Amino acid sequence: MMYSLILVRFGEIGIKGKNRSDFERKLVENIVQMLKGMDVRVMRADGRIWVRVGERDNYAEVIERLRFVPGIVSVSPVREVPLDLEEIKKSAVEIMQRLIHTSRKPVTFKVESRRANKQFPLSSPEIARTLGGHLLRHIPDIKVDVHEPDLVLWCEVRANEAYIYSEVIPGPGGLPVGASGRVLLLLSGGIDSPVAGWMALKRGAELEAIHFHSFPFTSERARQKVEDLAKILARYAGKVRLHVVHFTEVQKAIRQHCPEELSITIMRRFMFRIADRIAHQRKALALVTGESLGQVASQTLESMYTINHVTTMPVLRPLVALDKTEIMRIAKEIGTYETSILPYEDCCTIFLPKSPKTRPRVDEAIEAEQNLDIESLVKEAVEKTETVVFQRETESF
Ligand SMILES: Nc1ncnc2c1ncn2[C@@H]1O[C@H](COP(=O)(O)OP(=O)(O)OP(=O)(O)O)[C@@H](O)[C@H]1O
């Protein structure tokens, strides 16, 4: 096999001491979980994590999964070579040929070497020079550039073998899932909220999700779509508990008793109230939404303020700093985009008023809610909430 080992780089700059060892332990745990059922062994050595890939599995498939483990900065497939200079040279040429295979322009490179085994007859600079010279003689159209090479070939000389690697495949970075506590994601069927959930996962949050469903105004297929999105998020989270709230009664009450231009604001205030309640039950410490700042009624700052007023929980909005193209790029990358764009209606679109108020004030919202029995509506919705748990399905990759 070309590669039998994978080097995993991790760690945020500045994580030290106990936090660092917790980080490492959590990350190893998550990697083991992510690779469950595969023929691999996960090890820690030299402040790095290594994954040994057995006969039954292909390193490329292992990398495909590691690419999405929060906390991993990058991975490299590693070739193990006997401690013999001729073998090392041969492997270096093979790896280099493979890497430049697709490149049309001449490639620049440098060799970096590290010698942990002081018995090896050549020093690190000598290894780098020897390999560099050998590559130049055996591969046409490559040049050395020590400052800004297109690729770096690493050679690590260890006690019993040498490791050669070059490819660096970026991971998501961030923190291992579970390192920061639990959050509750308001998951609609749209493009944004699954991306917001992924961003929270990347910062180490353990994810649960809540969805407001308005059957029969919205179809079972709309609910299925959200379940599919939760399932995709479970690939990265390991597990996602989805709370499905039956929102129809609340919406009917709003339609009957509140001024139409404030119905969206009030509906969202109810979403936050119910989410707040369920978050407390589930010991989640923050809500997460896919909101960003914009022109539409529910996303002006005034509107956000008025909606947010019903909860004291932190509401994380990881997408405020991103623009739509960036959000779409991430949605495609994590695999939620295709599901998100399916055309099933959302509960908000159904009740969309003709001219919603774009800058609703808190006192206006409170006044508009006067004829509602807020507590019983919330209580009933919470009591009737259904919970579905999605575990990572390894075949889903
Ligand atoms: N039916 C719902 N169930 C749960 N959360 C919802 C629902 N509708 C909206 N939300 C939450 O409110 C946020 C803002 O919703 P809105 O429809 O204004 O924006 P959006 O940009 O279309 O978001 P998305 O693409 O996630 O649907 C969503 O990102 C989501 O977090």
Which terms summarize this structure?
15 strands, 397 residues, single chain, 6-stranded mixed beta sheet, alpha/beta, 22% strand, 9-stranded mixed beta sheet, binds adenosine-5'-triphosphate, 14 helices
Describe the structure.
- The chain has helices at residues 17-34, 59-66, 85-100, 124-138, 192-202, 220-237, 248-257, 263-281, 301-308, 324-334, 337-340, 347-350, 362-368, 374-383, and strands at residues 5-10, 40-45, 48-53, 72-82, 107-115, 142-144, 151-157, 161-165, 169-170, 182-186, 206-213, 239-246, 286-288, 315-316, 386-391.
- With 397 residues, it is α/β, with parallel strands linked by helices.
- The longest helix is centred in the C-terminal third of the chain and has 19 residues, at 263-281.
- The structure holds adenosine-5'-triphosphate.
- The site of adenosine-5'-triphosphate (ATP) has 17 residues, from helix 5, strand 11 and helix 12.
Using only C-alpha atoms, the radius of gyration works out to 26 Å
Main β-sheet description: 9 strands, mixed
How confident overall, as mean pLDDT? Answer: 91
* Net shape: elongated
Strand and helix order: EHEEHEHEHEEEEEHEHEHHEHEHHHHHE
Oligomeric assembly:
single chain
The unique ligands bound to this protein are: adenosine-5'-triphosphate
Helical stretch count? 14
- Cα(first) to Cα(last) distance is 22 Å
Low-confidence stretches: none
Query: Which structural category do the helix and sheet elements fall into?
Result: alpha/beta
Which percent band covers the strand fraction? 15-25%
